Please model this.
Amino acid sequence: MKIGVPKEIKTLEFRVGMTPAGVHEVVSEGHEVIVETNAGAGIGVTDADYQAVGATVVKTPDEVFAAADMIVKVKEPQLHECAMLRPGQVLFTYLHLAADPAQAKALVESGATAIAYETVTAPDRSLPLLTPMSEVAGRLSIQAGAFAMQKANGGCGKLLGGVAGVLPAKVLVIGGGVSGANAADMAVGLGADVTILDRSLPRLRHLEDIWGGRVNTVYSTKHAIDLLAPQSDLIIGAVLVAGAAAPKLVSRQNVKDMQEGSVMVDISIDQGGCFETSKPTSHADPTYVVDGVVHYCVTNMPGAVPRTSTYALTNATLPFIKSLAKLGWKEALSRDPHLASGLNVHAGHVNHEAVAHDLGYDYLSAADALKTA
Model:
């Protein structure tokens, strides 16, 4: 199989879909890899590094898309990249389609087969290709929030952990999954007063066990958010419904009730965000203010630390890339129902139920798509 790795073009996105280590493995198994020039520059990997392990380096993305049977990326394709896709071609990347109807329409019209990292599952029902970036985003959310809390950055001027004789800042983490737990871990480490909301009592018990009472755990209800949001200096939105748009859990009224200079970081923004006042931002202009509250809603948070993020992501994606290359997408998905969960679009049909529901498309299951492919 010919695998194409284009350079990422989302604003200030420096990650890359494959590292030289991954390229070396697939090339050694008889496949070809075509890499766009400078695709790895953002993580310190040169064209020569790719060539040394057998990749072919080309000058333009058009050459990558034209030559490849499968495109491996990090972020969702931009619309002009969607236009370069063709029927029968496989796209393997993050998609987050429920929050991006324009991209979904373009992928449907392309006729390509689009497999989304974020909906691939594991036997324990976890999301193995989303987990590494959720870990990074969770940890980054506290760094970003603490920075935004500084007075010069529009915040309230509080130090997250306080000092002797001064109370620490109050951090509210909404969602106790991978990103929420990592956010809480960082906040606890910095000495903040941390409260985690979640709707799973077993998960809340587990989180209490982890930190031995150093965090407060509260069952998530609208009343709890109404009560806790005005008291919080930093709110982290870490809610995930796999494949679907994130529920809006923090209302405009909640934001109005918060203290001026408080900060909100919406990790869920890739899926539309879990705050009513959320709107996508970029690393070039990451924050905005609503009712005196600073909002950080960058849609590719892990792109801020591309070296760590790329290696964490590609460690997880490489086995799936190898399977798709060796078997072809139909056989790979037929053998692995967890990889089949990643099928979002194929031959003009939407194959993920939550995406189809949120965007108003007819739903064709992955199993039925495989029967007709």
Q: What stands out?
A: Residues 334 and 340 are 7 Å apart (CA to CA). The longest strand covers residues 193-198.
